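Now for one record.
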Amino acid sequence: MDKQGILNEIKRTAEANGGVPLGTARFLQETGIREADWGGKFWVRWGDALREAGLEPNLFNQAYDTKMIIEKFVSLIRELGKFPVRRELQLNARQTRAFRAQTSLLVWVQRNGLPRQFWTTARATTVLRTWLHFAHPS
């Protein structure tokens, strides 16, 4: 498919989607146009193609604020009366829908260099509260 044909499909599918452009996976599903058909040939990024079609690229999901993650985590610890295991985090995420990132806390702990044993210690709540207090004083 040529460049103009892809641009036309981007516009058509966005219009059918209430003016919101599709992501690459759904665009492929709806049109059969693969990333290999446009990527590196006409545009480097999907957002570039959307802009050329006169549309605004979709925003990525915003990262959760560290303070909010820790506050939610401490709240869950209080609710459970113990340190949650991964499945409890997943269940809580599904039930509340208020904190959808089912393993955000696990990812956050790993990215911040806290050891895996951290998850099983009774001191974890105190450590988190202390960190929260010093990192984000009220």
Summary: The helical segments are 3-16, 24-31, 35-38, 46-52, 66-80, 86-96, 104-111, 124-135. Residues 66-80 form the longest helix (15 residues). The chain has a mean pLDDT of 76. The two ends are 57 Å apart (CA to CA).
